[in-house]
Amino acid sequence: MGQDADTFGSIDQFADSTRAASHTARYSRTAMALHWGIAALVLSTIPLGWYGASFEGDTAQSATNLHKSIGIAILLLTSVRIGWRLTHTPPALPDGMAPALRRIAEATYVLFYVLLLILPFSGWWMSSAVPERHPFGFGPFDVPFLPVPRGFASAGPAHFVHINLAWVMVGLAALHILAALKHQFVDRDGVLARMLPISR
Ligand code: HEM
Ligand code: HEM
Description:
Elements: H1 8-17, H2 29-54, H3 58-87, H4 99-129, E1 137-138, E2 141-142, H5 152-187
This protein binds protoporphyrin IX containing FE (2 copies).
């Protein structure tokens, strides 16, 4: 199967419509756009969240507000992505990959999707439950607060879930990036190229 730019469109459709896709097939352009868009947002919102939680003052408050808006964008895009994933079959992993590694990869993806939903939701919950709410949103549009119980009994558990799962996300992302680099430079099995919109 060719991998040049001319055949990219047909590979695309093939990857989306066939369960028996070979390891040379790629993710669809929509799946790639959602993967890289969400990855960029996650990797930028983590330092913003950490900065906002670690310091005081106007800059820290602005960082937290931006962190929240990016987080809500992640929640919306992840909902679209899960819908897309459930209706479009991704290309199969390389045939030579050990079954245990294959299962770890698949479990990692499920855990990513769970984290990409629970993290923003717990943050949104905590920000809605605290006694002193700080409005945030996108330009002139405020994100509505969730109709959750107000006070520490409600914000406390959401905060606990949020900050602990945030560090699970950091660890999982580090493992995921190392695995992608291993596929590329040690196994040389073309797994990274499956998620890149360029031909080799
Ligand atoms: C995938 C999305 C998100 C990720 C990966 C994420 C990650 C983080 C991280 C790493 C921290 C710093 C924790 C610490 O250093 O203690 C943090 C703090 C925080 N996040 Fe998020 N977050 C996300 C979405 C959201 C959303 C959508 C909201 C609210 C609408 C939110 C509200 C907050 C708040 C208020 C803090 C500060 C907590 C404190 O002061 O201890 N986050 N988040
Ligand atoms: C925090 C940021 C990231 C998140 C949340 C994330 C999440 C994911 C998820 C959920 C999948 C599975 C797609 C599916 O449903 O089949 C995936 C696949 C993939 N990701 Fe990431 N990713 C991130 C960053 C990266 C980075 C930085 C790289 C490259 C160094 C990368 C390389 C890949 C590759 C190559 C695949 C395809 C693996 C395969 O063919 O099965 N990801 N990623």
